Amino acid sequence: MTDASDDPILLVHAYCDGELDPANALALERRMAEDPRLAAERDRITALKRAMTRLKPTAAPPALRSRIERAVGVRRPAVRPTWSALAASVALAVVISSGATWSVLGPSQSALATDEVIGNHIRSLMTEQHYDVASSDRHTVKPWFNGRTVASPRVVDLATQGFPLMGGRLDVIAKMPVPSLVYRYQRHIISVTQTQGAGAPPSERTAEGYNVIGWSEGGVSYWAVSDVNMGELQNFVKLFRAAPVDG
């Protein structure tokens, strides 16, 4: 049997369930800040928990319950349930919960990706440097991602419009490395994450005090996230989309 202390993924699950003591929780938080894989697993578990809280219990239709009871040979007693009846109830709950879980997780790929984008942005703000490559030159930032992500990001220069480029960093969405650009607006940081196959981003969303604006172009999904007000973020996105495509 694998000891949980030897498996960092199991430690992340224990952390999300509140099972670690303060000392070990703090140590794991430092470890997650340095390991994108562990941080992505934490964000995935958190997003899943959030999605499960949206489930509303629904009673099974009487006809479905009867069919299942007949299939397993259950005879409903008049007073006390038998173990067979309890087993049938468990089977029924599994059928219902499986269908409900699929209905939540299936269409919510975009929501989970959005949670991960926000989590990556927040995590970058907790470090002294918000990027892996520091440069205001798009011709320096763009090539840095070669070999690190599936495709190089679209990088634009918005310094003259009040949104200077600060650099770029490697984030993880759905366990895949993706490029994120880092811009500055006054004293605020704006992250622009670019993904492929992570679901359609929301047009606009506010979560945990951060605004998110998403759009798709040329098979690529873009996620802009910041704590600036929605109006300023809309202006940034408008300028980003209108800027000439870099070579």
What labels would you give this structure?
247 residues; alpha+beta; Phosphorylase Kinase, domain 1; seven-stranded antiparallel beta sheet; 8 helices; 7 strands; 19% strand
What does this structure look like?
By secondary structure, this protein is of the alpha+beta class. It has a domain at 109-242: Phosphorylase Kinase, domain 1 (2-Layer Sandwich). Helices cover 44% and strands 19% of the residues. The protein has eight helices and seven strands, in the order ααααααβαββββββα. The chain has helices at residues 8-16, 22-34, 36-52, 62-71, 83-105, 109-125, 138-144, 230-242, and strands spanning 133-134, 165-173, 176-185, 188-195, 204-207, 210-217, 220-226. A seven-stranded antiparallel sheet has the order 1-2-3-4-7-6-5, sandwiched between helices. It is globular. It starts with 7 loop residues before the first helix and ends in a 5-residue tail after the last helix. 29% of the residues are buried.
